[in-house]
Amino acid sequence: MTNTEDVLFRLAETLASRRGGDPEKSYTARLFARGPDSILKKIGEESAELIMAAKDGERGAIVCESADLIYHLWALLAFYGIGAGEVLGELRRREGTSGLEEKKSRAAR
Question: How far is CA 17 from CA 32, 35, 42, 109, in A?
């Protein structure tokens, strides 16, 4: 496992451990307690912030907003009990496959 995967797995494990946690003590537990709409709203906000940072070409802001977006995406996955291994496995499955071919195969499903 690469260091990048290790960080993503640790993040996923930490987020999963916050399910059922005290919303007064954990931002993630608070997100979970508010339900998927709250998490989806944050994903939308962070996506918009990333878009704006990228349009402005602000490297530091792009990095920070990307991390925020990944965090909230991973929180959504944890909310639904989807582990990092499932997503990373899907990315591995697609590795080396033309994006056009991969999209075509999804349309056929």
Answer: 11, 16, 20, 34
pTM: 0.83
Q: Where are the domains of the chain?
A: 3-108
Which sign, positive or negative, has the C-alpha torsion 78, 13, 68, 95?
A: negative
Asked if 73 contacts 54 with a C-beta cutoff of 8 angstroms, the reply is: no
CATH, domain range 3-108: 1.10.287.1080
Residue 46 CB coordination number (10 Å): 20
Q: How many CB atoms lie within 10 A of CB 99?
A: 8
pLDDT at 1: 52
How far are the Cα atoms of 42, 93, 109 from residue 72, in angstroms, in the given order? 7, 23, 28
Average pLDDT in the 96-105 region? Answer: 76
